[in-house]
Design brief:
The complex is a heterodimer of chains A (236) and B (400). Chain A has 236 residues and is of the alpha/beta class. Chain A contains seven helices and ten strands. Chain A has a single domain, classed as Rossmann fold. Chain A is globular, with a radius of gyration of 18 Å. Classes of the chains: A alpha/beta (236), B alpha+beta (400). Chains A and B meet through helix 2 of A and helix 1, helix 9 and helix 12 of B. The structure holds adenosine-5'-triphosphate and magnesium ion.
Chain lengths: 236, 400
């Protein structure tokens, strides 16, 4: 079953007389529980695609269908609600609020969705799952990069989303930490059955996904399951 | 909510400045407002006091003896249609030195009215201590609350009236009185009155006349004014006109003339308060707007994040508005506290110097100042909050 469907997904930016085709007629289906890596050169449209999937941007043409809902027909408020209820975000720069401690940061999305009496317990459990049970009251300034991103991963899952989007989630940490973060995301993907779509420049990271989508000039250049692509061409 | 307060405490310096802006505004509003309130109270009292009767004095163009009124004029006035009672009265300054204290009333006066006239006045005097003077006797005085405080006397004490001059003055003649009562505070003229019997009043008036006149007139025929009380339903202004028309040698002042004078003073004071309020609005409002706008710029990414994780426009709007309102409340409370403290302090100082109190912090002033600062915080927070809430999540998240 396709959890997410991109239909002719297009985003154009006008710049003076030129039109930049950041994303140009992308058709893709991503199944529930898949772990997808999006790769491609700088400017190829990765971030644009992720922002469209996350309902942070409106497409110029085409649509994103999430769990059967055609999101192009939704009003801004309903898109916000859908973001809160169905989508989790992990950012390269963590984006934790400096005034909140780890637990409060994880609980932030709960503030904007339906009251959930289990929310706090779930946030604590998630922090335990990301191995930060002893850091609940630490402020972001008191956490390492890897720890911060683990807080962000816990935050992305606190609302039981169907989909988690990560734009270079390992971009700010060293290789070893980056590996550990990927372990964690794969485990969450397995244990919670959540679909993950992450953008990465790091081919070692991309290798560990179920599937790699390569973008070039706003179009899908290749889309292959990982088993079929062992070999040399990965580095390109 | 906790996050909001933490956000505020994190940016201590800037929020401190903003709160100071509101504090200064509310401080100005509270203190100036308290002066106006005090004045308004005195004016209200004055209006009530002067609405009570028609004051009649000697005609100003009276040639020889101009300014001197005789008691028998009261009988002529009594005969005018609509008059219930015409009471001869005397009033002399209680002090022989010039007095520059801040006061909206006529100043310290030793007053007296013919016996039996108090019953006609609708402005009822009540006693904090002791009792009324024996109106037909001599040597007794009832003091208004301010004058009692000023001269530091209590019931049973003896006091010389008028007060002896600081420098020797050969013209000065004083008389000793026993204080038999002290009035409740009225917030108007009677607070500065020393009330004596009419007989004593005439004696004091006679002694206060210029030395050249003293021997030539009999003080027991003299009065400084006549208080005319009207029958029920009679218009006092028309009555004053009728007295002027029918009784020669006197000048009746229409109460509305006096009342209007008070009213225009009141309008002036209200203008001062309004000015202060506007000043506070500008100072406090601008500082809140500034802080909130800076907060928006500084926290664009935070707003972007919140929108990404599901915050609606109204969530962001609400958070920023709450923040601005808290600034308004804190600034308002501190400003009010300081202003109130200042007013009480200065009042206490004035009281210790035997001066009239300058400030009156009323509950409506407190309510207004608080409502004002909270409203200010909210209104000043609206524009930045709207700006913040409208930010597009992508632009906001990528903001450097
Ligand atoms: N707001 C915008 N206005 C104009 N052009 C834009 C805007 N956002 C992106 N673009 C352009 O769209 C194209 C795709 O950008 P995008 O950010 O999706 O690339 P990317 O693959 O994420 O690159 P990188 O690896 O450097 O992050 C680029 O050419 C970029 O300049
Ligand atoms: Mg990018």
């Amino acid at each position: 079953m396709a959890a997410i469907e991109m239909v002719n997904l297009t985003k154009h930016y006008k710049q003076g007389k030129n039109v930049i085709k950041a994303l140009d007629g992308v058709n893709l289906k991503i199944d529930t529980g898949e772990f997808v890596a999006v790769v491609g050169r700088s400017g190829s449209g990765k971030t644009t695609m992720l922002d469209l999937l996350g309902l942070l941007l409106r497409p110029t043409a085409g649509t994103v269908i999430i769990d059967g809902v055609d999101t192009s027909k939704l009003k801004d408020g309903d898109r916000a609600t859908m973001r809160g209820e169905s989508i989790g975000f992990i950012f390269q720069e963590f984006n934790l609020l400096p005034t909140l401690n780890a637990l409060e940061n994880v609980m932030l999305p709960l503030r904007y969705t339906k009251k959930d009496p289990q929310g706090e317990a779930r946030a604590k459990r998630l922090l335990t799952e990301v191995d930060l049970a002893d850091r609940l009251t630490h402020k972001p300034a008191e956490l390492s990069g890897g720890q911060s991103q683990r807080v962000a991963i816990a935050r992305s899952l606190v609302n039981n989303p169907a989909l988690v989007l990560g734009d270079e989630p390992t971009g700010e940490v060293d290789n070893e930490t980056s590996d550990q973060l990927l372990d964690l995301m794969r485990r969450m993907n397995r244990e919670h059955g959540v679909t993950f779509v992450i953008v990465t420049h790091d081919m070692d990271i991309a290798q560990r996904a179920d599937r790699i989508i390569r973008l070039k000039d706003g179009k899908v250049a290749s889309d292959e399951p990982i088993g079929a692509r062992e070999g040399a061409e990965l580095a390109g | 909510m906790f996050e909001i307060i933490r956000n505020l405490t994190r940016r201590k310096l800037r929020n401190g400045l903003t709160v100071s802006g509101i504090v200064i505004g509310v401080l100005a509003l509270t203190t100036l407002g308290a002066i106006a309130e005090k004045a308004n109270y005195s004016i209200d009292g004055g209006v009530r006091y002067f609405r009570d009767h028609v004051s009649v004095g000697a005609a100003q163009n009276g040639g020889f003896g101009g300014g001197l009124l005789t008691v028998d004029k009261a009988k002529d006035i009594q005969a005018v249609d609509g008059v219930q009672a015409a009471c001869a009265a005397t009033g002399v300054s209680a002090k022989t030195d010039l007095d520059f204290s801040l006061s909206f009333g006529p100043g310290d006066q030793v007053t007296a009215e013919q016996p039996g006239c108090q019953q006609y006045s609708t402005f009822k005097l009540t006693y904090a201590k002791g009792h009324a003077i024996d109106e037909t006797g001599t040597g007794q005085v009832v003091l208004g609350s301010d004058i009692a405080k000023e001269f530091k006397v209590n019931t049973g004490d003896t006091i010389a009236l008028p007060r002896p001059p600081k420098k020797y003055n050969p013209d000065y003649v004083g008389h000793d009185f026993t204080v038999v009562g002290i009035l409740d505070k009225t917030l108007t003229a009677p607070d500065n009155f020393a009330i004596v019997s009419f007989k004593d009043g005439q004696t004091l008036f006679g002694d206060a006349l210029p030395a050249a006149l003293r021997g030539r007139v009999d003080p027991t025929t003299l009065a400084t004014g006549i208080n005319v009380y009207a029958k029920a339903g009679v218009d006092l202004d028309k009555l004053a006109q009728k007295i002027n028309d029918t009784v020669p040698g006197v000048s009746a002042i229409a109460p509305s003339t006096l009342v209007n004078a008070f009213k225009s003073a009141s309008v002036f004071l209200t203008a001062i308060t309004t000015g202060a309020a506007l000043l506070a609005l500008v100072v406090g409002g601008l500082s809140v707007v500034n802080t909130m706008l800076m907060a928006v710029t500084e926290r664009v990414r935070e707003i972007g994040l919140k929108k990404a994780v599901g915050a609606h426009t109204y969530h962001v709007l609400r958070e920023f508005l709450t923040e601005a309102t808290i600034l308004g409340v804190v600034g308002g409370l501190v400003g009010l506290g300081l202003g109130w403290g200042l007013a009480l302090g200065i009042n206490a100082y004035f009281a210790s110097q035997n001066q009239n109190e300058l400030f009156l912090v009323t509950s409506r002033l407190v309510t207004f100042a608080l409502a004002f600062s909270i409203g200010l915080g909210m209104i000043a927070g609206v524009v930045p909050a709207v700006r913040a809430s409208r930010l597009d999540p992508v632009t906001a998240l990528r903001y450097q």
